[in-house]
Amino acid sequence: MTATLIPPAVSPFERLLRSGSLRRAASGPVDFRILPRVKSDADSAAILSDLRGDR
């Protein structure tokens, strides 16, 4: 049995762009001060530990 390997028609990056899940980078500097702040009961260490999981 043989297999023929061919590149995908659309890259995973392009698929995310087309679905709207991802946007291209800003063309200029981004001012992060305009983003709304979010309150959390968890501290940064707890959030990072949760994100890292079982690494």
How would you sum up this structure, described in words?
With 55 residues, the protein is mostly helical. It is 31% helix and 0% strand. The chain is built from 2 helices and no strands. The longest helix is centred in the last third of the chain and has 9 residues, at 44-52. It is flat and about 55 Å long. The model has no long low-confidence stretch (mean pLDDT 85).
Quick gist of this model?
With 55 residues, the chain is an all-alpha fold. The protein contains two helices and no strands. The model has no long low-confidence stretch (mean pLDDT 85).
Question: What is the topological layout?
Answer:
Layout: H1 12-19, H2 44-52
Name some characteristics of this structure.
mainly alpha
- The tally of beta strands, per DSSP, is 0
Rounded to the nearest angstrom, the distance between the terminal CA atoms is: 38 Å
Helical region count? Answer: 2
- Backbone CA Rg: 19 Å
Major sheet size, sense and barrel closure:
none
What structural class do you assign from the helix and strand content?
mainly alpha
Q: What would the average pLDDT be, to the nearest integer?
A: 85
Q: Which ranges are low-confidence, i.e. pLDDT below 50, for 5 or more consecutive residues?
A: none
